[in-house]
Amino acid sequence: MAANPQPAARLQWFFGAIALPSGWRVGVGPMIAATVLTLIVLSALFAPLLAPHDPLAMDALQRLKGPSDTYPLGTDAYGRDLMSRVLTGGQISLFIGIGAAIVSVVIGLLIGLVSGFFRVADAIIMRLMDSLMAIPSILLAIALVALNGPSIWSVMGAITIPEIPRVVRLVRSVVLSAREEPYVEAAMALGSSMPKILWQHLMPNTLAPLIVQGTYICASAILTEAILSFLGAGVSTEIPTWGNIMAEGRVYFQIKPSLIFWPGLMLSLCILSINLLGDTARDLLDPRLKKREG
Amino acid sequence: MKFKSRNFDQASNVLEITGLTVRLTGNDKADPVLDAVSLKIRQGETVCLVGESGSGKSVTSLSIMGLLPKGVLAATGGHIELEGRNLLELNAQAMRDMRARKISMIFQEPMTALNPVLRVGEQIGEVLDTHTKLPAREKKARVLDIMNQVHLPDVERIYRSYPHQLSGGQRQRIMIAMALILEPQLLIADEPTTALDVTTQKQILSLIAELQEKHGTAVLFITHDMGVVAEIADTVHVMKLGRIVEHAPVETLLRAPKQDYTRQLLQSVPSLSPRAPRAMPEGQTVLAVEGLQKVYGAHGVFSRREPTRAANDVRFSIPRGRTLGIVGESGSGKSTVARCIMRLIDPTEGEIRVAGKEIATLTRRQLRPYRRHIQIVFQDPFRSLNPRWTIGRSLIEGPLNIGEDKQAALARAADLLTLVGLPDDAVHRYPHQFSGGQRQRVAIARAIAMEPDVLVADEAVSALDVSVQAQVLDLLDELQQKLGIAILFITHDLRVAAQICDEVLVMQHGHVVEHGTAAEVLSNPQHAYTRALIEAAPGRSWDFANFKELQGA
């Protein structure tokens, strides 16, 4: 991510112009990002209603047609409607993105809390996490697909597993510093049980960084899914995803670039919006940055 | 008590501040941070600026240095005159030139003021690099010379040392060397001894006095400690809420303060004379510690390092309704003892009997039912309450753990708040809405909620201003009388110990060197270390609260 979190003064209107009622200032950029993302999510959710055609229905007579009234974005090499496919493809992509973010954050949070608080468990867990981190997600995906066949779950696993150690490290570092706070020691002296201390005193400290981390995981998962599908190691080719559509369109790229352009555009907009929102969340939740502006 | 009584009528002014007003930028309606502050410092004079936190002492010093945080605070009126030039009108370049050559400053925490990755000799040399053009050999000679002047041992070795290799006192000497190497007219010392132990403080204070005499430097000394004021000041300025409320030569001010605020400030300085002995109660012993030992770094078969004995053969007992003080400097092991007794860390050896039950060897789970008998109040009121929790939720955490009904606990929490002198609607508020002293009251209420037999106060009043400190000490005393709890009071401050303790235990390097009633230990110390501690307490022969010499001193 950007090394300099402080937006340049001349970009102030873009990053920090509109004051929300809560006193937080949110710029035009994040507002646009939120709008775009909402539209993409809605279009994916309501794809069955919005799509003019069945995304899987082939029509041999209508192969590689340009935009027309019946096919607003044209058709692909099998005569399937591109617009219907792009809209439907968003469902899988977003499902994998959000799913991977939630699963890795929840599992990472639990492991990280335990690892940060109990010294003995820490040594073992962190070595395990180090070895997990060494596995490239693409290699893992190919292995999982080879074992289980191409499916959403193989892809989800391949994306989620390498993300977990990153979340664990983040949570652990927050817990390590928070557990030294006198209020945690006071809770021990008051006879609170370990699970209670972990959950009620330490866990809330990790929420802000986790929200930020979650958005980044979501964006990178959508991208990784597209890459895996593009390489043929992802979701099975009958199911349209943005990556699959692009992979199939690659062959006809020179005669019909729109086969890659439209899913690519949706993918870029989606990831850009999520990242922008993640940056905004980081700035809003980081008290140090807030102070500097004040 | 011998005060400084030199006459400065003939001496020339070094610094003259007239009507200095500092405001929050962009907020002209808010009260000014400094309101028409005027003071002058003459050659060779030590001016002390005293006041509680938030009174504007440090803002005054930062204004002189031209270091007010940009965009937050700005001087909107007045003059700061040094050698006929108004410092407020100088541009950044000219101001930089003034610093170190004309005015220099030393800070409270020498560890953070020094760069940890540069050798200290180079850091002193850097001052010369910025302001002079000396050949390397001459530069080093001057650095070694000033290091000798601040009485650092083995200067060649220390020249090559990094800050972390030096003790706190040595680091502060390095800071003083840096500040004085260019022989400035004015030295600003902002709480320079607050982070140091009393014995080190005494050395640093006499060092500053010695160098001041040698070089004729004027000193602006900022402190909250009246004892230090009595030792070193020529003239004292008392600040409150951005105003100077009173100024006078030191003896006049301490003998006959004119303003109510000054009287109040002096009256809250705890006296070094121990409290009147209380009758020994017939109550049973509630905390007994026997042969307590804590060793760090003992395990590790291949480790050649000598294990550190943080506490060694500590033994004492406290009956109901009495207060035992553990006194010592940093590293003496007093906090280690407190944390062992609380079982926040595990003792290596020894017995701890709380309300008749041996708890030193219980597992965490076995320990939980006994936790309620012994509770702790920590030093830092800003970190000892969970900032995300309401006061009420913090107060009922313990009672819920021992199975009390939530509604009953909440009702009792409101009563507890009244007991510690806070409004009972505080239950619904958050810690950040309270001052340090109020938060410490909440922390005490939280401990009392468990109805403990023993309350451990680990430097519980050290972070508070003197007037608040006095109130919290009174509160502890009152609670003790009402509830009959025993208090284990850990402190580095002999004055505080004298005020509250029945018995005092003096620790040094993990060993108990002296143990007796407060009257015995403080009036007739047997061990050399205890004597050194008492001797180092600044202003020890002055009774601040009664504006006169301490009787029998």
Topology:
The complex is a heterodimer of chains A (294) and B (553).
Chain A: H1 12-15, E1 18-19, E2 25-26, H2 28-45, H3 47-50, H4 82-117, H5 119-133, H6 137-148, H7 152-178, H8 182-189, H9 194-231, H10 242-249, H11 258-285, H12 287-293
Antiparallel strand pairs in A: 1-2
Helix pairs in contact in A: 2-4, 2-11, 4-5, 4-7, 4-9, 4-10, 4-11, 5-7, 6-7, 7-9, 8-9, 9-10, 9-11, 10-11
Chain B: E1 13-24, E2 34-42, E3 46-50, H1 57-65, E4 73-82, E5 85-86, H2 92-98, E6 103-106, H3 110-113, H4 120-131, H5 136-149, H6 155-159, H7 168-180, E7 186-190, H8 198-215, E8 218-223, H9 226-232, E9 235-240, E10 243-249, H10 250-255, H11 260-267, E11 285-296, E12 308-319, E13 323-327, H12 334-341, E14 349-354, E15 357-358, H13 364-367, E16 374-377, H14 391-401, H15 406-419, H16 436-448, E17 454-458, H17 466-483, E18 486-491, H18 494-500, E19 503-508, E20 511-517, H19 518-523, H20 528-536, E21 542-543, E22 548-549
Parallel strand pairs in B: 3-8, 3-9, 6-7, 7-8, 13-18, 13-19, 16-17, 17-18
Antiparallel strand pairs in B: 1-2, 1-4, 4-5, 9-10, 11-12, 11-14, 14-15, 19-20, 21-22
Helix pairs in contact in B: 4-5, 4-7, 5-7, 7-8, 8-20, 14-15, 14-16, 15-16, 16-17
Family (chain B): Belongs to the ABC transporter superfamily.
GO molecular function, one term (chain B): ATP binding
Pfam families (chain B): ABC_tran, oligo_HPY
Mean pLDDT of chain B: 90
Any idea of the CATH topology of the domain at 85-286 in chain A? MetI-like fold
Looking at the chains present, what oligomeric state does this protein adopt?
A: heterodimer
Radius of gyration of chain A, in Å, reads 22 Å
Helicity of chain B, in percent? 25-40%
CATH class of the domain at 85-286 in chain A: Mainly Alpha
Helicity of chain A, as a percent range? 55-70%
Transmembrane segments (chain A): 31-51, 92-118, 124-147, 259-278
Subcellular location (chain A): Cell membrane
Family (chain A): Belongs to the binding-protein-dependent transport system permease family.
Protein name (chain A): ABC transporter permease
